[in-house]
Amino acid sequence: MASILLLLVFVLATAIRHSQCYPSSFLLFKSLQVKSGAIVQYHPGHQKHGLPVLRATTMDMDDAAKEGSVYNATAVKSLHRRLDRDFAAVALPAFVSLAADPIASMVDAIYVARLGPVEQAAMGIAISAQFSIAKLYNDPLLKTSTSLVAGKSGADLEASVATAVVTALAIGAIQCIIFLALGTSIMQIMGVGKSSEMLQPAVSYLKWRGFGVPAATMLLVTNGIFRGRGDTRTPLYCTIFGNIINIVLDPILIFSCGMGCAGAGAATAISQWAAAIPLLIMLDRSVPIRIMGRSKQFFEEAWRSYLEAGGLIFLRTVAKIIAYGVTSAAAARLGVVTMAAYSLTFNLGFATSQLCESISIAAQSLLAREYPFDSTVKRLSVRHVIRRSLLLGLLVSGALSVTTFLNQDAVLNQLTKSPEVFAAAARIMPVVLLTQLFKGLAYSTGGIILGGLDWFWSSLGMQLASVLCIGVIYVCPPSLWNIWVALALFMATQVLLTD
Fold it and tell me: Which phi-psi region, left, alpha or beta, contains residue 49 (left: φ > 0; alpha: ψ -120 to 50)?
């Protein structure tokens, strides 16, 4: 309980400090100082990749006085209102799209829970394994493509898109082969022994889901490209279509076809292909994806950008999946009931807080399009986007935590039919909800850093947070409560290190 109180104090201190509206990362924001006497005149109508671009006439207050001008506060307010509209235009469709994914995951969990705690725990450990391996390669593609595409046009844009698509297809195929060939070994690495009753359903789920990994990788990178261009509506439609397919197929494959856990994995794989193919076709209509006949120089600059940024994001992702892998393995060692409770609360706490990623997407997209921040109006714009993303991150994550707390029993009853799993999950809900709050804030700060193309600081912050999380796991006595305390500190550290 003392750890919970300490973390709550940190939340309040962070919120108060952020309310002062000063930048977060010193590497990104030292350049965002704006003279109080600047004059900003907003000129609407300019477009870049479908998004309005800010143009301004700026002058120092002394120069303005010489010319008989006055500070135009109305123009600044107009600028802020336009930014808010841009923010909403990117964030709201992304919010709906991200909401569809956890809903589909919850449907999977509800159906598999009817098979019993063994299958529920097996699916949980398989998802953790798939998540760990997929994130290792997919995160660099998604996060770098969003920022690097945002400032491109013409041949540079086509090169960036083609490079990202080819890389995604190759990485997805490699992951598929790994899941199909090494499924049993992966489960053993995750802590599931050869004699464990969780092994067979976990491996079957992982292998069936592996068939959808190439589609999932393509879906991620095309999402990143559309986001970078300010279009979150097109990915939304494809995501909803895929999730409807998943929800319809779940009961058919799990129960009617008698596939059990494997049926949930197969439904997910089919839905991923159903979403990825139309999205890729629409991307090709927007930005022609021509691979053949291109010169080496055409891809060279794009490859260099992706390798430089992707390398640092790769290290960031390695740190994240090691932390998640260690916590998942620690839960698996505590038995079936504890692993099932961990799986349930992980899906609940982390899946719902992913809704805050819509704020991160909007912040990253709007900041990246203004990079470099070399004018007064750009610095004014960046400061406003930062303030909005931090405030909205706190509000949305706080609302999710409060809503989950008020409906805790009803939610848990829907996610498990086992009294033992219900009791184990209920005992740790306070720290789960606190982790949910920090994860929401971490999305906001992460989007801000990536929007400023500060790949190094984003990577370093995640690595330090991972070291702290793993240290808590190995130092504290093994228990589900301490596992979630480690995860709470993991998220809180990410927020603290970007403050």
Answer: left
pTM of the model: 0.64
Amino acid type, 143: K
Q: Which residues contact 460 (CB under 8 A, 6 or more apart)?
A: 497
Amino acid at position 467, single letter: V
What dihedral do alpha carbons 350, 351, 357, 359 form, nearest 10°? -90
| Each residue's pLDDT tens digit, 16-73 | 344 343 333 433 444 344 443 343 333 344 444 443 333 333 333 333 333 333 446 7
pLDDT tens track for 485-494? 999 999 988 8
What does 174-206 look like in DSSP terms, one character per residue? HHHHHHHHHHHHHHHHTT--TT-TTHHHHHHHH
**Exposure of 109 in the CB half-sphere (CA atoms within 13 A):** 27
Range of lowest pLDDT (61-70, 209-218, 239-248, 300-309): 61-70
For residue 176, the one-letter residue type is C
Residue 444 contacts residue 359 (beta carbons within 8 Å): yes
Helix (H) or strand (E) holding 52: strand 51-52
**Long-range contacts: 60-65, Cβ < 8 Å, 24+?**
60/35, 61/35, 61/36, 61/37, 62/37, 64/37, 64/39
* Host H or E run for residue 47: strand 47-48
Residue (of 266, 320, 354, 271) closest to 128 by Cα position: 320
